[in-house]
Every structure is written in structure tokens, then in C-alpha cells.
Amino acid sequence: MLEQRIQQHFIDSADLLYQGGAALSKPLSQAVQALLACVTSGGKVLACGAGVSGLLAAQFAAQFVSRFERERPGLAALALPGIADDPQADTRQGADPQGFARSLRALGEAGDVLLTLSPSGESAAVQAAVQAAHEREMSVIALTGGVGSGAGGAVGRALRETDVHICVPHERLPRVHEAHLIALHCLCDGVDAQLLGEQEIPA
Questions:
Q1: What is the DSSP string of 72-121?
Q2: What is the mean pLDDT of the chain?
Q3: What does the pLDDT look like over 136-175, one tens digit per residue?
Q4: 74-116 pLDDT, tens per residue?
Q5: How far apart are CA 158 and CA 18, in angstroms?
Q6: Dihedral over alpha carbons 193, 46, 130, 128 (to 10 degrees)
Q7: Which of 165, 193, 164, 169 is nearest to 179 (CA)?
Q8: What does the alpha-carbon distance between residue 57 and residue 50 come to, in Å, rounded to a whole number?
Q9: Dihedral angle, C-alpha 85, 113, 61, 25, nearest 10 °
Q10: Exposure check for the chain: N or C terminus, fewer CB within 10 A?
């Protein structure tokens, strides 16, 4: 019974990633173009995530600054500090709802890009960061989750038409986390491909 349950996790994840490729390829492509325009004009990417998504934001920033799969000059990116172990971080009751916004107002400049991760789309801290980014004339790339009319939650509703919304069509947060990781890899690879030229993706 336990083995079947474990196998089902892999099946559900594989199904979501297979379907997500078609659903998310357009917004991911738009996000790559936004990141490329930012860094080639001297801007920087500020990344943040609700709770454990902050770890994904930090990983993205590290790969953007150093390397993903190919050597290249460093690109300007920084992960905003957050509380990875706050169980309420991806809700409206997070421990520090203005934490990301404070950092953003201190570090963000017009032309920079804010990249956010909130699987539920309901993180008060991420929503406040989006609003602060707009105040600083920054564009936003938001990775969220959910299905139906409420997909993307409060974060999705806070976005402007010029922002990019990458909403994973699933309600289970572990599945959304997994898809967000793949999405971040796609962003890093896409920017590298645009800067360094196409290269066959290794098997």
C-alpha cells in the first residue's frame, strides 16, 4: 500500500509536468524576454518566495549570478531575505507581511525585475512585494498555482498587464513546488540560450 502511494506521487508529478509544458511555455517565454531585457540594460533581478519557496528563490539567484549549465559572465540577481520555516508564509497571516516590501523599496530600481514564488498565490508578503515593485516602476514575474477562477490568488490579482503570470494549474502545493523548480530551470536555460546561443539540451 505504501509503495503504491509513493508511486502515485511520481505519476501525479509526471502528469502535471507533461501537461504544464504546453500550458506554461508561453508565459515562461515571456518571462525569459523580460529577464533578458532587464539584465542587458543594466538592471537586476530581485527574487523572493513565501516560506520554503524562498529556498527556490535563493537557488535561482545563485544560478543567475554564477552559472546554470554553461559558463558565462555573472548576471545581477539577489534573493530577498525571508523566513523559510514560517508555516504561514504562503498565507495572508505570515509572520512578516512587509518583509519583502521593505527590502524591495531599499534595493529595487526602475527597470529591475521582481521574481516571486507563492504556490497558493495568497502570501501577504509576496503580494506586498508586488505592490512595492510597481511603486518602484519594476516589472514582475509571478509564479503561483491553483485552478479555476481563483487561480493565482491575491498575488495574481495584484499583477498588471505588463507583468508575467506563470500559474501552475494544480492545487496541491507539493506539486506546484515541483513545477516551480522546473519553471526556474527553464528561465535560467532560456536566458543562457538567448545570450550564448542555442545548445542541444543534454538528455
A1: -----EEEPP--TT-TTTTSTT-S-TTHHHHHHHHH--TT-EEEEE-SSS
A2: 93
A3: 999 999 999 998 878 999 999 999 999 999 999 999 999 9
A4: 999 999 998 877 888 888 887 789 999 999 999 999 999 999 9
A5: 28
A6: 150
A7: 169
A8: 9
A9: 90
A10: C
Between CA 42 and CA 80 the distance in angstroms is 19
| Phi then psi dihedrals of residue 194, to 5 deg | -70, -35
Q: Is-contact 162 3, C-beta < 8 A?
A: no
At which residue does the C-alpha cell 519583502 appear?
100
CA distance 118 to 136: 21
Tens digit of pLDDT for each residue in 1-16? 899 999 999 999 999 9
Cα gap 171→8, rounded to integer Å = 16
Distance of alpha carbon 54 from alpha carbon 117, whole angstroms = 8
